[in-house]
Amino acid sequence: MKRSIAKKLEELRLHWKNYVFQSLFATLVIFAVLLGLRFQQVVIIASIGSTAFIVFAMPNSVAARPINIIGGQLIGFACGYLCGLIPHESFLASAVVYSLAVGLSIFIMVVTDTEHPPASGTALGVAISGFTPTVLTALIASVLVLSLVHRVFKRHLRDLT
Questions:
Q1: 23 CB contacts (<8 Å, ≥6 apart)?
Q2: Is 73 exposed, middle or buried (0-12, 13-18, 19+ CB in 10 A)?
Q3: Based on the structure, what is the number of domains in the chain?
Q4: Nearest Cα to 101, choosing from 78, 70, 71?
Q5: What is the pLDDT of residues 107-138, one digit of tens each?
Q6: Confidence category of residue 40, pLDDT binned at 50, 70, 90
Q7: Distances (CA, A) of 25 to 16, 18, 30, 82, 92
Q8: Are 143 and 70 in contact (CB under 8 A)?
């Protein structure tokens, strides 16, 4: 059951430093990642933003574990790439292929115990836009940075959800 507004405000009052620190830290890390990406890899930027939310707002979540971040995102990328190879000339065929990329990424992440919800967004983005080595490099660099930050700073991070 959701916490009441009064309880949430009390938690904010008690732990306001965590809320501010973690939000600013997420801002700084994403800023650094975006400088490295130079906005050329738009296909993964939204997914990386969602990963940052999990790392900084839900650091004790299973999805925030480095193995889940790295493994899940690589699975999402691979599923998007493989599904993007399927010919899809019509709108209906495209919808099938893009949906398959998401469903396949979910299936493989669950089977391999590397669940990371934003990675399904990566699968969708790569299926739509296609493979480029720069997107793969940007994805790897981004998930490594976020995983490293999570590992190094986890003891200072508090679940904010």
A1: 56
A2: buried
A3: 1
A4: 78
A5: 999 999 999 999 999 999 999 988 888 888 88
A6: low
A7: 14, 10, 9, 35, 42
A8: yes
* Six-digit token string for 144: 């490594």
CB-based contacts of 50: which residues, under 8 Å, 6+ apart?
117, 118, 121
Residue at 25 is within a domain: yes
Contact 95, 116 (CB under 8 A): no
Residue 52 placed within a domain = yes
Beta strands in 88-142 (DSSP E): none
Angle at 9 between CA 7 and CA 11, to 5 degrees: 70
Question: What residues have CB less than 8 Å from 79, skipping those under 6 apart?
Answer: 101, 102, 104, 105, 108, 123, 126, 127
161 in any annotated domain:
no
Assigned token pair, 66: 């480095």
What's the alpha-carbon Rg for the chain, to the nearest Å? 17
Q: Give domain status of residue 43, yes or no.
A: yes
What is the extent of the structural domain holding 18? 5-156
User: How far apart (Å, rounded) are the C-alpha atoms in residues 43 and 103?
Assistant: 18
Tell me the C-alpha distance between 9 and 16, whole Å: 10
